[in-house]
Amino acid sequence: MQNPLKGFFYFTRGERRGILVLVTGIILVFLFGYFYSYRKEQQPLSEEEMRQQAIAVAEYEDFIASVQEKQKKREKDFSRYPLKRAIPVSLFPFNPNTADSAAFHRLGLPEWMARNILHYRGKGGRFRKAEDFRKVYGLTEEQYRTLMPYIRIAPEDTVRHTRLHASLMSNDSTAPPKTVLYKYPAGTVVDLNLADTTELKKIPGIGSGIARLITNYRQHLGGFYRIEQLQDIHLDYHQLRSWFYIDIRAIRPINVNRSGIERLRNHPYINFYQAKAFVEYRKKKGKLHNLKPFALYEEFSETDLERISHYICFD
User: Fold this and answer.
1) What are 86-131's pLDDT values in tens digits?
2) What is the C-alpha separation between 308 and 305, in angstroms, rounded?
3) What region does 32 belong to: left with phi over 0, alpha with psi -120 to 50, or beta?
4) Which residues contact 102 (CB under 8 A, 6 or more apart)?
5) How far, CA to CA in Å, does 118 sit from each of 75, 124, 183, 238, 280?
6) Closest CA to 126 of 154, 92, 106, 165
């Protein structure tokens, strides 16, 4: 029986010769392509190809040079115009009616808020009490609570002044004649802690406004212990020194062992943290007998303790 696969794989002599020629041709074509590409890689570039390659290299170098130039310019600008350093925040007593923008910046308020406060004051606005500062636009409750213990409102800012229309009064023929106030002669001396507004106005250089300013601040303090304290309310004590003497027995002290934080902090010379230190000390160690323990507290300076000592008692 004849194998069927034999007929399938059987080729005549002519067919075998054709297959051999075809395979040889394929091999020659492959070798020709290989040698052609190899020779092309080995032979030098044409002038046009070299010119295009040179242009590409030049453009690349120009690009790198421009990037380096921009980087150098940026570094030069940074060195010429350094970034503004943040102003360190520090807390200190301040009067919002007189503090400048630098003071507000040091207290941690942004520039735009300080500008708004100055604009408000420029229009005649005043802060009459510490709580008024809470109404500053943009001020958060946390910022207000942080700054509140350091707010100091001068006594003259708590009074609303009314302006008299002097021109109308001068043109009014029916206006009563002005009364000339009596003034003390030189050499007169009055007690700064006992004189009322009427007596104070008899001192040359003191009018109704200054007289009220002195008595209001005296009430707030509890009395004066030296003439230099008048500079606390922006008065020139040098001009007034010869008209006053001071009896310190008229000072009304605060009992530091019986007063709470609010009572203590209402005094012009005691802030919230100092009042809190007094109360906390009492709770931990009992009754106070002097101020020596507080010399080690960071809340008190030597000047603070000296001023406070005139206005507290321990009974």
Assistant:
1) 567 788 888 999 888 888 888 889 988 888 898 888 888 888 888 8
2) 5
3) alpha
4) none
5) 37, 10, 39, 31, 38
6) 154
Give dist(CA 214, CA 204) in Å, integer.
Answer: 15
- The rounded Cα 67 to chain-centroid distance in angstroms is 39
Question: Cα–Cα distance between 221 and 229 in angstroms, integer?
Answer: 10
Contacts of 94 (CB under 8 A, 6+ apart): 103, 107, 150, 151, 152
Structure tokens at 123: 């229009």
Domain extents in the chain: 8-40, 101-158, 179-250, 254-313
How far apart CA 214 and CA 240 sit, in angstroms, is 12
* C-alpha torsion sign, points 289, 293, 298, 300: positive
Whether 191 and 250 have beta carbons less than 8 Å apart is answered as: yes
pLDDT tens for 239-248 read 899 999 999 9
Instruction: Read off the tokens for 162.
Output: 């009314």
Per the structure block, which two tokens stand in for 36? 């052609």
Three-state SS sequence of 82-134: CCCCCCCCCCCCECCCCCCHHHHHHCCCCHHHHHHHHHHHHCCCCCCCHHHHH
